[in-house]
Amino acid sequence: TGAITLDPGYKNSGSCTSDITFLDGEEGILRYRGYAIEDLAEKAGFLETAYLVIFGELPTKAQLEQFETDIRKYTLVNEEMKNIIDGFPKTAHPMGVLSSLTSALTAFNPKVVNVENDKEMYEAVCKTMGKFLVIATWTYRKMMGYPLNYYDNTKGYVENFMHLMFELPTGPYKANPVVIDALDKLFILHADHEQNCSTSTVRIVGSSHAGLFASISAGVSALWGPLHGGANQAVLEMLEAIQKDGGDAAKYMAKAKDKDDPFRLMGFGHRVYKNFDPRARIIKKAADEVLATLGVNDPILNIAKQLEEAALVDDYFVSRKLYPNVDFYSGIIYRALGIPTDMFTVMFAIGRLPGWIAQWKEMRVNKEPIGRPRQVYTGYPLRDFTPMEKR
Ligand code: CMC
């Protein structure tokens, strides 16, 4: 087969062609299906953006209503799924539970495994959008020991997220519209990001013709790691640790620059953005607005500000083009909205779901070959077998 080109981490290899997301890391540009992320965050809703990402065009009013109705049809999750949830300890991390529950959905929805035509593809999309939101919030209910909630057909998708998470049998619950708006924006900003680690995982698992739920379950696992989606939780834990340690941001800057110390400044740097992450810019502004509207005065924000200001003028960070990324600010908003830290990466997963679905669909529609990277072998040449007694 000739020489293999080695590219660890696929820093310079394209794995597919894609019509979904355009990203220019040097210029800090992000577009879904040709539409600027800034416009979508300002003018569109999350389901509208999901429709665009998955089907390629902005929906008409009728198409969007139909999409929402069709998703709603599939929001009931089989009651037997509760047996699976019961088996987890309350201390289980929600991302592990979410990945398992997503995989378990295949058992109850075999059609999502063998998508054979456009109609089945559309149903698989709506089922995934409907059921994933519900089970994502169930990971929180489990952690808290609360009874599980059901989707409320009188409310919108993002409002349902708040209801599913926070409504208790003991009293009525009304989500703050400012919070719903902010979440809508956050989900839009996370909706797709071309061939990132979790999306590449979804595509590569799907390339073996594994089903949509199985592929997305693998994507959830990939997202969990602190170098990817898990960074939003890691950022908050880092800020809390700095606060506990006396609030000395400079000390942690020094640790991050020390090559003998494995500590990295969480929420800084990006494989593709070598300029400000455009999502971070929008989220930062949204964070300021939400915190002002909700009257939140969080001391952790001061530490975040100090780190950001110091990094932006520090030689180490400037020369390596390490700017704050989306995860640096998203955790700060989630915290202000009352979302517990362990749920931050689940929030990312809910937002990223349309992207995973769209990329899986594109991979199947384009009839891509099975993903099967090569390697450069660096082990032993042929060796004589050593019998047990001679080892
Ligand atoms: N703190 C300190 N040094 C860093 C950091 C950081 N956060 N990020 C990169 N570096 C250094 C790294 O040590 C290396 O230095 P040198 O050239 O001297 O060896 C240089 O910058 C290049 O880093 P890299 O690890 O080769 O770059 P990468 O493209 O492989 O990694 C990254 C990208 C995002 C994994 C990395 O920047 C990182 O670990 N950041 C912290 C975790 C984080 O915030 N992740 C969220 C990413 S955005 C959303 C998402 O994907 O979910």
TrEMBL record:
CDD domains assigned to the protein according to its UniProt record, in alphabetical order: EcCS_like (cd06114)
Single GO term (MF): citrate synthase activity
Spans traversing the lipid bilayer: none
Positions in coiled-coil regions: none
Swiss-Prot/TrEMBL catalytic activity: oxaloacetate + acetyl-CoA + H2O = citrate + CoA + H(+)
UniProt keyword NAD present: no
Biological or metabolic pathway of the protein: Carbohydrate metabolism; tricarboxylic acid cycle; isocitrate from oxaloacetate: step 1/2
Keywords of this entry: Acyltransferase, Transferase, Tricarboxylic acid cycle
InterPro entries, per the entry: Citrate_synth-like_lrg_a-sub, Citrate_synth-like_sm_a-sub, Citrate_synthase, Citrate_synthase_AS, Citrate_synthase_bac-typ, Citrate_synthase_sf, Citrate_synthase_typ-I
Family indicated by similarity: Belongs to the citrate synthase family.
PANTHER family from the UniProt entry: CITRATE SYNTHASE
Name used for this protein in its record: Citrate synthase
Organism name: Flavobacterium solisilvae
